Structures are given as structure tokens and as C-alpha cells.
Amino acid sequence: MKGKAVVLVSGGLDSATCLAIAQQQGFEVTCLCIDYGQRHAIEVDRARRVAEASGSPLRVVRLDLRAIGGSSLTAEIPVPKGRSSAEMASGIPPTYVPARNTVFLALALGLAERIGAQDIFIGVNAIDYSGYPDCRPEFIRAFESLAQLATRAGVEGAKFSIHAPLSGMTKAQIIREGMRLGVDYSLTHSCYDPAPDGAACGQCDSCLLRRRGFSEAGLPDPTRYVARPA
Fold first, then answer.
1. Range of the domain at 36
2. Is residue 128 part of a domain?
3. Which of 48, 147, 211, 229 is the most exposed place for a label (fewest CB within 10 A)?
4. Are 160 and 118 in contact (CB under 8 A)?
5. Which CATH number do you get for residue 22?
6. For residue 109, is it within any domain?
7. Handedness of CA 7, 206, 93, 172 (dihedral sign)
8. Measured between alpha carbons, how far is 41 from 198 in angstroms, rounded to an integer?
9. What is the pLDDT along the chain (230 residues), one digit of tens a residue?
10. Cα(4)–Cα(11) distance, rounded to whole angstroms?
């Protein structure tokens, strides 16, 4: 056993894979889910399911980023639908939540310091990431440096490591790795704008990236969509 680690778990495909990787590497994992008032709050329930299936304890922190707004996930701003790969790669989409990963990692860092963990895992991806600036490797390294300066543990000599094992992987590669590690993707949820019954819209950026990933991996997508395109 390598020691304790905090894994940010959103209930999505990437974080479920990240959790499996942390466990495979021998860490004693505590999962952390952030309920931030997001439009797709179903992911909090899915995070519980993913954590339970992994056998790891889950902490849920609740805060309301709707008070800040500025994103189609936390305000009455339309979620983009049916965008091409070129459109997704151009600019930062309205689904970007201001400073979200900075807030999430800060909370994970607080939990890590509290339980005596020096390793934090986050499932950000720098390839299929829809242009979010807080998914880039430069951000991860900068936050890792901050962790040493901003905590008592860091000042007293602890060496925090922020792990982003999916950073250089395509969605198809992530899915193949997760399948190898036994991830049950039917427990996960990716859609930014689900129907009231939880069915995925099939047309938001996250749905399109997920569908393409399963297709390129040559594997069936277990997601229940509102209307599954031909």
C-alpha cells in the first residue's frame, strides 16, 4: 500500500477511471464529490454509486456556485448542442465553470491535509477536454506548487503530488484503460443537460465526446440517451 490518496469523483467516466487507476497503484483512497449546484446534479448520485462499487469511502462537500454563475452548468445559459470537433476545439465553451477545478482541488487539498494524505487524483484531460483552461497540465503543476506553500503540512515538509493520469489520453484510451481495470461505465453519467428522468441528451459536448470515445474504442456505450442517434 502506497499510502492515502484523495480522488475527486464526479460520477463521470473520467473520474471513475481515475479512481480505478489510483486503487490499482496501491493507494488507500478516499473519494471526494463536490455538489456545487450544477445543472446535472444526477452526477452526485452517480459518484455515490461509483465510490460504493469501488469499496472506497466518499465525502460530499456542498457549496453553491450558482451564486457566482457565469456558466451554462450553474446559470440559465443554454448548453451548446450538436457541435463539431472543430467547434469544440475553438475557444472556451459556456459550460466552463469559473475556477471550478481550482475550487475542487483546494477542497481536496484540505481533505488530504486533514486525513494525512499527500496524493490527490483528478480526472482532467488535456486532449478531449472542450477547451477548459483548468484541465491543462500547466494548471496542475501550478496547483501542486501552491499546495506546498498554502498548507501547514507543506510548510512542515509534506510533499503533495497532484496526479492527472488521464491528461494525455484520448477518450477511447481512457475507456479501454477503465475496462481493463474493471470500471462499470453503466454507473457513470456524462451529460451536461440530462432529461428530468436522468436520460442523457446525446448532443452536448460531453455526450458527443463520450459517444465518440466508446465508438473509437470499439465498445458499446451503456448510456441511456433521450434519443440515440443512428
1. 3-217
2. yes
3. 229
4. yes
5. 3.40.50.620
6. yes
7. positive
8. 10
9. 689 999 999 999 999 999 999 999 999 999 999 999 998 789 999 999 999 999 999 999 999 999 999 999 999 999 999 999 888 888 889 999 999 999 999 999 999 999 999 999 999 987 765 678 898 899 999 999 999 999 999 999 999 999 999 998 999 999 999 999 999 999 999 999 999 889 999 999 999 999 999 999 999 999 999 965 44
10. 21
Query: Which residue, chain included where needed, has cell 501552491?
Result: 146
The residues, any chain, with a CB within 8 Å of residue 28's CB and separated by 6 or more, are 1, 2, 3, 4, 5
Q: Residue 223: inside a domain, yes or no?
A: no
Q: How far apart are CA 160 and CA 163, in angstroms?
A: 10
Helices (H), the chain: 13-24, 42-54, 85-88, 100-115, 137-150, 152-155, 171-180, 205-217
Cell numbers placing 222: 451503456
